[in-house]
Design goal:
The relative contact order is 0.14. Strands 1, 5, 6, 7, 8 and 9 form a six-stranded antiparallel sheet that branches. The protein has a four-stranded antiparallel sheet with strand order 2-3-4-10, with helices on both faces. It has a two-stranded antiparallel ribbon with strand order 11-12. The two termini are 28 Å apart. By secondary structure, the protein is α+β, with helices and mostly antiparallel strands. The protein has helices at 4-17, 33-39, 180-188, 200-211, 217-220, 232-241, 255-275, 286-294, and strands at residues 24-26, 44-50, 53-58, 62-67, 73-78, 121-123, 133-135, 156-161, 165-170, 174-178, 318-322, 325-329. Helix content is 26%, strand content 18%. Helix 1 packs across helix 7 and helix 4 crosses helix 7 (255-275).
């Protein structure tokens, strides 16, 4: 499932490619036909993310809410502009067809085998498709055949199309048109998101909510009503960085420990949004940094490293089922 940094990257891409335009909105699959008719031809005025959810505002007090869930993903095609705050490590896109270096016929190849830092595709990983770029947890650039707009491929729930860019949505958990009041109701149920407001007040809101929970901190960090955007990767890595046993009841933790968790989440989230990859090992430089961009195991402490020696203490990393999700942690460091 895409974590918070991916959804913020998607929102930024909508900001530079669609906000200020009045896209045609359709539902090639047909399941969102009524909602698409409400939005089509209206100017998009805002694009924002809160945790794992994205909200696109259209004139007339209409909002498109999208939660990608496990299977959802966005594909972008056309002359896709890149938000200047987003790093792309494999090419100097500037402005041009996404997935190309700017040289005719040259297709971009992501540094990372999963293409996590591309802006072509963000969401659930899928097999390669022709004539599009794809945005979700794993972004990757894909070849295009030059046709614009490309024909819809697969079960496209929503297509947004303006003069230069096409965005296709497949497989979301939630896709609906809301009023401003309904958007506010959704947001109020979510915990704070430091990418939107990294303030003492928001940090205290997280600490207060977390300290009311007798459940393990490893579950609390995944609770989107307590803190927004953290998924399985960041959960495992944050707990390791804090040397916290995932099973520790949240209400037994000192407030200062929870404050440090918030600060670390803000730090890692900003890296993820900017770099496009969940780099959770600090201080990487030169070849070490380049290896981290290319290989997942080189940018994480414990995630998917079960059975291998901890980089810090040498104890084998453990994998267990925890709250219906896989938990990776080090019994040696996280006492």
């Amino acid at each position: 499932m895409p974590e918070g940094h991916s959804v913020h990257r998607i929102a930024r891409q909508f900001g530079v490619n669609f906000v200020g335009t009045a896209p045609e909105v359709t539902s090639p699959q047909g399941r969102f036909a009524q909602g698409a008719a409400l939005l089509s031809g209206r100017e998009m005025t805002d694009a924002r993310a809160v945790g794992k959810q994205m909200f696109l505002e259209f004139e007339g007090d209409h909002w498109l809410r999208v939660h990608l869930g496990i299977y959802g993903a966005w594909d972008f095609a056309g002359e896709v502009a890149i938000d200047p705050a987003i790093q792309i490590h494999t090419t100097k896109f500037g402005r041009g067809r996404l997935g190309q270096t700017g040289m005719a016929g040259v297709v971009d190849t992501p540094v990372d085998s999963a293409g996590e830092d591309s802006v072509a595709s963000i969401g659930a990983p899928r097999r390669s498709r022709v004539a599009r770029v794809h945005m979700a947890e794993r972004d990757r650039a894909e070849a295009t055949n030059g046709a614009f707009p490309p024909d819809p491929v697969g079960q496209v729930r929503v297509r947004l199309l303006n003069e230069t860019v096409c965005a296709d949505l497949r497989g979301p958990t939630a896709c609906e048109v809301l009023t401003p009041a309904e958007v506010d109701a959704v947001v109020q149920k979510l915990g704070p998101d430091p990418a939107n407001a990294n303030t003492p007040e928001e940090r205290e809101r997280f600490v207060t909510r977390a300290r009311k929970k007798k459940t393990p901190i490893g579950l609390v960090l995944m609770d989107q009503s307590i803190i927004a955007g953290i998924g399985n990767v960041y959960r495992a890595e944050m707990l390791f960085r804090a040397r916290l046993n995932p099973h520790t009841p949240a209400n037994t933790l000192d407030p200062a420990v929870l404050e440090d968790l918030w600060d670390d989440w803000a730090h890692l989230l900003e890296i993820g949004i900017t770099v496009g990859q969940m780099i959770t090992i600090d201080g990487l430089e030169g070849d070490d940094y380049r290896r981290a961009l290319a290989e997942r195991d080189e940018r994480h402490w414990v995630y998917k490293l079960e059975g291998t020696p901890c980089k810090r203490c040498g104890t084998n990393i453990v994998l267990e089922e925890f709250g219906a999700r896989k938990l990776y942690w080090c019994p040696g460091c996280q006492l």
